[in-house]
Design brief:
single chain; mainly alpha; about 0% strand; disordered N terminus; binds beta-D-glucopyranose
């Protein structure tokens, strides 16, 4: 294959626009995901929320995400990648701006459902668009950029919500400002989206070769690069095409589908979003308030996503999954013990500093364990294990499973703690960590250092799941 030396020619300005707008897609995912933690108190003050109302407002984002993920494949195919991104950007902007007007709770919840729908679309279309439109030499790093931007989004909204909550006294004004800060980024994505070129691969799919060539002329530097890209797309279009849902009835596909589904299920059952959404509330149960309670989770989560990016290639996926699960297992037991020693409903002044310190350390190491492993690795493995013709179906279904379990936890965690005691939920999560370790050991293949084609060959050859990543 001829060498591409994008680096020497430098990248055109449009490439920067492509990456930034796409990065904004990841950022908005994070902004909406991280919104709840430090706004819940203000939301409660303004809307007088009960515990179940808090849970359902938090969780409805996930329901929207499931619907968005389900429809995103069809939208990306029918509307095209660019128009799907514009649609997501429009929903993000209009709905966050409308939420800032503080409509009644039912409408505000419908708005959060719509935000989830946009997140569901963006989380499918942004990586797809990048993999088809960014110059070949930087495609790999674009995938990890999307993951990073999610954690940066969670961090930024946590920080700005803390700042707003502390400087603006009236809950109504504070809440409007919180929604408006999301609107600013959403508008940037929406209006930035108009400058984006359409994906050349989609244009070719629609028999619009001339336009595809014109787009590549804008993003690439040399005619030879453009010709190479066009011929690769043509080859791919003549190869096996995306299969329909029927592929799930083929035995070899069903096997990897189960791996993907269980990975996504465990990614949520270890309890990450209970921490992302409710950490300030949980720290509050232990009598801890203030900046540490509000910012520890998003900060540690963002910082440790950076090393994960190089570690997945150095150590491999499975080692990281073990490391993360064991770290989360131990720390969830520690958090459970801390809450047990605090007991039920003590007055905040009666809580000694030892259990507070244990809880804080446990949460820090827990989030480190997740951010460096299960956070990025599960998405990566799910993008690697499916045979090409079933990749779209596989990724859509596994993404929907992720949102389903995320929603279930957000919708029930606080009530569960209220009913069964604060420590119970942490013991439950540690139990899921044990199951997750056993599952990784028995069924998950190591996908480092093997090409997707080799793995597909092994799969069709009947190699057992955990050996799929071994060279034949
Ligand atoms: C998970 C999200 C979670 C985020 C935290 C992602 O990998 O799928 O549910 O909120 O990590 O960084």
């Amino acid at each position: 294959m001829p060498e591409l030396d994008q680096g020497k020619g430098g990248y055109k300005a449009i490439v920067l626009v492509i990456c930034s707008v796409a990065a904004l897609g990841g950022l908005l995912f994070g902004l909406d995901q991280g919104f709840i933690a430090n706004s819940l108190e203000t939301l409660t003050a303004h809307y007088h929320l009960t515990v179940p109302q808090k849970e359902s407002y938090s969780a409805i984002l996930a329901t929207g995400g499931i619907v968005g993920a389900l429809l995103s494949g069809v939208l990306a195919r029918v509307l095209g990648r660019k128009k799907s991104l514009l649609l997501a950007g429009f929903i993000f902007t209009a709905v966050s701006a409308y939420s800032a007007l503080l409509p009644d709770l039912a409408i505000l919840s419908a708005c959060r459902f719509a935000l989830g729908f946009a997140v569901g679309i963006a989380s499918f279309v942004v990586p797809l668009y990048l993999s088809e439109t960014a110059p070949p030499a930087i495609r790999g790093s674009m995938g990890t950029l999307f993951q990073l931007m999610i954690t940066i989004g969670i961090f930024l909204i946590s920080l700005s919500n803390v700042y707003i909550a502390r400087t603006v006294v009236a809950p109504a004004t504070a809440l409007s400002l919180m929604f408006l800060s999301i609107t600013v980024f959403a508008a940037l994505m929406f209006f930035g989206g108009f400058i984006l070129p359409e994906s050349p691969r989609w244009l070719m799919l629609k028999d619009r070769k001339q336009e595809a060539v014109a787009v590549l002329g804008r993003t690439l530097n040399r005619q030879s690069e453009i010709d190479l890209e066009i011929s690769e797309i043509e080859q791919a279009l003549h190869g096996p095409q995306g299969a329909g849902l029927g592929i799930i009835f083929r035995g070899y596909f069903l096997k990897v589908l189960m791996v993907g589904i269980l990975l996504q299920m465990f990614q949520q059952l270890v309890g990450i979003n209970v921490m992302i959404y409710y950490a300030p509330t949980i720290f509050g149960f232990a009598g801890m308030k203030g900046i540490v309670a509000m910012m520890t989770v998003p900060t540690v989560n963002m910082l440790f996503t950076f090393p994960a990016i190089s570690l997945v290639e150095k150590w491999g996926r499975k080692k990281l999954l073990y490391l993360g699960a064991v770290a989360m297992l131990v720390t969830m037991i520690a958090a459970g013990i801390a809450f047990q020693s605090i007991g039920a409903n003590p007055s905040p002044t009666a809580i000694t500093s030892a259990p507070k310190l244990i809880l804080l350390l446990a949460v820090i190491v827990y989030i480190f364990g997740f951010a460096v492993s299960w956070g990025p690795v599960v998405w990566l493995v799910c993008s690697e294990i499916f045979p090409l013709e079933g990749r779209e179906v596989g990724m859509t279904l596994t993404t929907m499973v992720n949102w389903t379990f995320a929603g279930l936890l957000m919708a029930n965690a606080l009530t569960f703690m209220e009913k069964h005691g604060n420590s119970s939920i942490f013991y439950l999560f540690s139990g899921f960590c044990v199951l997750a370790v056993a599952f990784v050991a028995l069924f998950v293949p190591e996908t480092k250092g093997i090409t997707l084609e080799e793995m597909e060959f092994n799969l069709r050859d009947g190699v057992r799941l955990r050996d799929l990543g071994k060279r034949a």
